[in-house]
C-alpha cells in the first residue's frame, strides 16, 4: 500500500495500530527457532519498534524521531529503538539486520538507497514483521505500507513551470538528487516529462 506523505501523521498512527495488532497474533520473531520471544505488549514487556533513519543531518528527520518518541511516551507498552545510518547504505543494512536480530515487532525505515535495502527489508517482512517504509521506497512490494510524496508529480510540476516560464526556449540546468534513491529517480523522470522536450525543441 502506498500513501501520500501529506497524510503521514494520521496514516502513521493507523499503521502503528494495525502493525501492533498484527504483532499480537504473529509467531515469535525468528520463527521460533532460537529467535527472540514473543512479547506481551504490556508496560512490563513492551512491544519493540525499530526506527531506521538513513541520516539525521536533515532537521525534518530529527523532528520525525522526536514526534515518534513523544507519541510512544504516551503508551507504556511501546519501546522505540532508533538507528542512524549516517548516509551509509551498508551501515543501514547492518542496522536493519541488528534490529531483526532483536526481534522487533515493527520496523519503520527511511532507506538511503532502494537496491541495497530491498533484501534486508524483505527478509524482515517475510518473518511476519510489519514494515513501514517512509519517504524513500525500496524495490518490489515486500513491505506493509509506504508513506511518501508523489515525487514524479513534484518533478513534473517543476518542469512544466520552467517550460511555461521560459516560453519553451532556453537552456535548463537540472541539479539532481541522489539518483540511487527513488525520490531522485522519480523527480528526474517527472521533471523531464514536464519539460516535454519532444514538443519544445527550443529547450535544452
How is this fold's topology laid out?
Layout: E1 2-4, H1 8-25, E2 47-53, H2 59-73, E3 78-84, H3 89-101, E4 106-110, H4 114-126, E5 131-134, E6 145-148, H5 151-165, H6 182-195
Count of discrete alpha- or pi-helical segments spanning 4 or more residues: 6
The largest pleated sheet is described as: 6 strands, parallel
Structural class: alpha/beta
Number of strands: 6
Helix/strand order, N-terminal first: EHEHEHEHEEHH
In percent, how much strand structure appears in the residues?
5-15%
Helix content: 40-55%
Radius of gyration: 20 Å
User: Which spans of ≥5 residues are poorly predicted at pLDDT below 50?
Assistant: 27-35
Describe this structure in words.
- By secondary structure, this protein is α/β, with parallel strands linked by helices.
- It is built from 6 helices and 6 strands, in the order E-H-E-H-E-H-E-H-E-E-H-H.
- The chain has a 6-stranded parallel β-sheet with strand order 1-6-5-4-2-3, sandwiched between helices.
- The protein is elongated and about 65 Å long.
- The relative contact order is 0.14.
- The model is unreliable at 27-35 (pLDDT under 50).
Amino acid at each position: 500500500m502506498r500513501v501520500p506523505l501529506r497524510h503521514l501523521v494520521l496514516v502513521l498512527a493507523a499503521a502503528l495500530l494495525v502493525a501492533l495488532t498484527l504483532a499480537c497474533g504473529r509467531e515469535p520473531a525468528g520463527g521460533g527457532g532460537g529467535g527472540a520471544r514473543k512479547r506481551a505488549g504490556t508496560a512490563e514487556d513492551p512491544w519493540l519498534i525499530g526506527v531506521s533513519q538513513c541520516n539525521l543531518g536533515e532537521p525534518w528527520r530529527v523532528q520525525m524521531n522526536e514526534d515518534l518518541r513523544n507519541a510512544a511516551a504516551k503508551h507504556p507498552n511501546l519501546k522505540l529503538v532508533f538507528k542512524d545510518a549516517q548516509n551509509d547504505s551498508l551501515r543501514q543494512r547492518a542496522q536493519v539486520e541488528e534490529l531483526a536480530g532483536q526481534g522487533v515487532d515493527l520496523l519503520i525505515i527511511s532507506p538511503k538507497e532502494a537496491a541495497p535495502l530491498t533484501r534486508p527489508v524483505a527478509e524482515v517482512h517475510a518473518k511476519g514483521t510489519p514494515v513501514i517504509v517512509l519517504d524513500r521506497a525500496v524495490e518490489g512490494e515486500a513491505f506493509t505500507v509506504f508513506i511518501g510524496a508523489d515525487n514524479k508529480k513534484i518533478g513534473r510540476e517543476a518542469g512544466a513551470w520552467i517550460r511555461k516560464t521560459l516560453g519553451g526556449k532556453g537552456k535548463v540546468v537540472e541539479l539532481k538528487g541522489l539518483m540511487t534513491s527513488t525520490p531522485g529517480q522519480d523527480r528526474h523522470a517527472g521533471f523531464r516529462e514536464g519539460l516535454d522536450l519532444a514538443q519544445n525543441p527550443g529547450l535544452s
